[in-house]
Structure formats: C-alpha cells, structure tokens
Amino acid sequence: MSGSKESKDILKQLIEEIKKRDDITLKEFIEKVRHKIREMGGLLTEEGAALLVAKELGIDAVKPTIKTTRLKIEDLVEGLSRVRLVCRVIDVDPPLIFKKENRELKLAKIKVADESGTISVTLWPPHVGLVENLQLELGDTIRIENARSTRFRRRLELNIDERGAIVSVPHSKEIPSLSKILGDEPKILEFTIISIKEPIQVETRWGIRPVSCIEGVTDNERIRVVLWGRKANWVKYVKVGDLVRIRALLNTRKEFSIGGRKFIEYSTGSTTSVRRIGETSIETTRTELTVDEIEVDRLGFSVNIRGVLSALLIDKGFRAVLCGTNNLVEIAMVHSSARLDVLKNSNRVCKVDLMISNLEPVPETRSLFESTLWSKCIPASESDIFKNPDNVDSLDQVIVGRPFRVRARVEHVDVTLNYYCNYCGNAIGSAAHRCFDEKVLSITPVVTMGIVLDDGEMRVKGVSSDITLLESLSSVSIRDVLDFFMKGEGIEPVLKYQLDLSVGKEYTFLCRSFNIKTTTLNGEMVIIRNEQGEVSGS
C-alpha cells in the first residue's frame, strides 16, 4: 500500500489500531481493503477504502479528510470530501435565512435516498437557488458531486457549496422509485394559486408550531394546502397567479361540495416539495362581501363577511350571527383567537358592524361559515338594526328586513348562559381556570335567549343576546350573574324561575326579521332587543 504522506499517516494510524485487535490480522485487513477497492470499481483511494473497512470493523478513532468519487449512502463516514453520489430527492425544505458576523446567509435542506439509505443534504449558495426558485421536487434523481460529509447534531449529513455541483439524472435505473423508498405513493397536486395565508404561530399538542396556507383552483376544484412546521415558509417563495405542482404525502382533512363546486383541504407532513411550473393571469374576485351579497353557489375557500353583530348563539358551540338588510348568516367561531375578537364586542350586540375575515364555507349545517386559523374580527362602524322601527299591531304585518315594534305576550322563554375567559376565549365553568393562576380574573358572560311571542293570532320565535333584555325580563342583574360565578354557584335555576314568571305577560319588544342564508334550508330568524333599557309591560 502506497500514497502521499497524508495517506501514509492515515494508514499508519489504522495499522496501529488493527495490531491491537485479536479478531483480525494485518494481512486480513489489507486484503479487505483491496477487496473494497475492487468492489467500488477502483474509484476509492487506499485510505478511503481503509477507512470504510475500519468503519465496518467498528474502528472510529481516525478523523480524516479523504477523497472519493462515488459511494452509496450506507458507506458514508464523517470527514469525506469530493463525494459523488447518485440519489433520489425525497424531501425539500424552503430556504432558511440567518445572520453570521453581520452577514445574511441562506441555506436549504433536502433529503435524498438510494437503495442503501437516506441522508440530509445542506445546500449553500449558489445551489440554494434550486430550492428558492422552486426547481427541485420529490422524485427528482440527481448526481451530487464534490460534497463534504460532516456531522451535525450527531447526525451524518452532506454539504454542497460553490465547489460542488448538483446534476439532473433524468433516466437513472439505479435508484429505487420514490414510492418504494417512502413506502407510499405521494399525491400530486397542480393548481393556480389564488390566495396565500402568511405563517402564524399556533399552539398544538406538539408545542408551538408555524402554519401557513396556499389556496388554489383547478377547472373543477377549490384546493387548500395547509403547511405545517418548516414547510410553512414555502408561502414566501410563491405568489398569487403561480401555477404550482405540489408532491407530498398529504393528509386529506376536508372534502365537500357546495353549489356544484368541490372543496378539498390537505395538510402536509414532513415529505413535501413545491415546484413552479408556470404563471397565469387570474381574474380578480371580491373576497369581502356584505351579508346580503353572499351567493351560496359562488363561494370560494376564503371569504370576508361584513354585517351587524345581531346575536351570539351558544347552545351548540359558539356562533356569531351577522345580519345585513334582509338576510343574516350564522358563523361558527371554532378558533379561540377569532372568538376572542367577537367577545370583545359582545356588549355591542345589534349596535356594531363587524368584518370577519378568512372564513370558509361549511356544507349541510345551519352555519354557512366557520372561522379558520387566520380569521380576524374587526369592528367597522357603529350601527343600529332597529333604527326607525315600524309600529305594528300584529305579527302578521311584519316585513322581512324591516325593524318593528310590537306588543305581544311571552308564550315561552329559555336561556343559555356561558362564561368565557378573556385570555384564551374558551368557555369555563368556574374561577378555577388555568389562565387565572397568574393573571387577574377576567370573564365575559354570554347569553342566548329563545323567546316565543304571541299576539293572540300568530306566534313568532325569536332570539336575543341582549343582556339588558335578560335583566328586564328576569329582574336578575349582570352583577348578580357575576357574583354567582365568583361564588361557584350556578345562577341558571334562578334565571329559569324568574323568566317563568314573565310567561303570559304582555310586553313591548323591538324586533327584526331576517332570511337565514345556509346551504341546507330556507327560513327566517327574528332578532329581539330591549327598548331603551327597559321592556314596557303590564
């Protein structure tokens, strides 16, 4: 065995290690090295082959920088340079940007595989551009040249800088198929991007994780891809109008149809790539609609709805009711951040115009929309849906969309009362709530009343979230409600008893009737409010 001084030093160290072993002789070691060189087609240097044999024998004492031209992944050891590897891309992460010594650096990480194993590869400039420009995707077969093997956080990886190269190998039969490597067939999505949701931080059972979203269209589908973890940053490298291809092991979270349009939502795992395959001009569509402008058959995946907050329905979840002139819509506020925004305006029911953003349609339920992780509730202006009411003598004179004042007997009344934490937005049953361990107790009571009115000839069922109406009908003040909560006592039996006393009595109410917009049924809802702080009755 011969070579340079550096090679001889490496071999000398290995020979010393071999001499300490009882399970192999020096002659057997040299023969194994020669066999390894023949096995690799003569592409290994003597010191490279010797190190690989040493690795197989469990000898890790030598930390060299050796030169080789092509290996399998299972043969790699720390300290190699000029690595030449043919492999298949099985994962692509968006680029990372960080600062070092007042310089901004950018890198990208991909994962590759061959028949022997997998390994992470860090791409440095100029190769980051392959990922940044969305030119690399799952399934691509590439040849890596002049890479260096290092260890990062105890894991072996390859690094490619300006001295290395990545070359496409279109028709390689050496590497197993992507589905064989992954054990599953990745899904392929091609669509035009129409909306992008920027990354936000979300608390999950796995801790705080970033999440973003891409929404797009095909000829007959509306598609949403929710990107979690490192994949969330893909949205920084795409734009509205891009025609993209996503290859990934995706989970289908939702699939439904509304108005003949198919909606599908996917979420990504750890195996994902995004590739730009073209650009298209897309027709600009309005995403902010008033309640009266909603056309159920023309809904997209995301919409912003504006209307007057007219009621809060808490019998099944938490639903905000927004109304326009003639119509109203129920919105399920399933995410705590959006629910908190609505709670901040709960004392202004029937008096504030709200815009709730980034809502998605919900099929076959009474609620037409529900919130998403990106939903926000923003007060737009003051409003009053009971301004200039008509004075009617009977309920059959009611015109949909017109406020009216009517005197009627209470036929039936029920109430649902919940308390919501002003920090997390969740319903709570007592003051012994985790948010109050280190913070001042802060809650919002929310009420939903169902009231049946009877004028002697016709009955109408209405709803109200007006706290002052509850106070007037039950003679129980909001202060009483809060006192009972602080004492850990339920006030619902007291409310029921007091409200039962109002049954059979006549009062004057402010009301307004609306058409309900849903995907499943047609109907009307009557919103009822107290008049000037008091209900006039007898």
Overview of the molecule:
The protein has 538 residues and is α+β, with helices and mostly antiparallel strands. It has four domains: 1-64, no CATH class; 68-185, Nucleic acid-binding proteins (OB fold (Dihydrolipoamide Acetyltransferase, E2P)), CATH 2.40.50.140; 187-279, Beta Barrel (OB fold (Dihydrolipoamide Acetyltransferase, E2P)); 390-537, Beta Barrel (OB fold (Dihydrolipoamide Acetyltransferase, E2P)). Helix content is 16%, strand content 44%. It is built from nine helices and 29 strands. The chain has a 15-stranded mixed beta sheet that branches. A hairpin with a 2-residue loop joins β13 and β14 (261-279). It is elongated and about 110 Å long.
Radius of gyration: 34 Å
Q: Describe the main β-sheet briefly.
A: 15 strands, mixed
Q: What is the CATH C level class of the largest domain, in words?
A: Mainly Beta
Q: What is the CATH third-level topology name of the largest domain?
A: OB fold (Dihydrolipoamide Acetyltransferase, E2P)
CATH-defined architecture of the largest domain: Beta Barrel
Number of continuous helical runs: 9
Brief sketch in words of this structure:
The protein has 538 residues and is an alpha+beta fold. The chain has helices spanning 5-19, 26-39, 46-56, 128-132, 178-182, 336-343, 467-474, 478-486, 492-500; strands at 66-67, 80-81, 83-92, 96-100, 103-114, 117-123, 141-152, 155-160, 165-168, 187-204, 207-217, 221-228, 242-258, 261-279, 288-290, 303-313, 319-323, 327-332, 352-361, 369-370, 377-382, 390-391, 403-421, 427-428, 443-454, 459-464, 506-516, 524-529, 536-537. It contains nine helices and 29 strands.
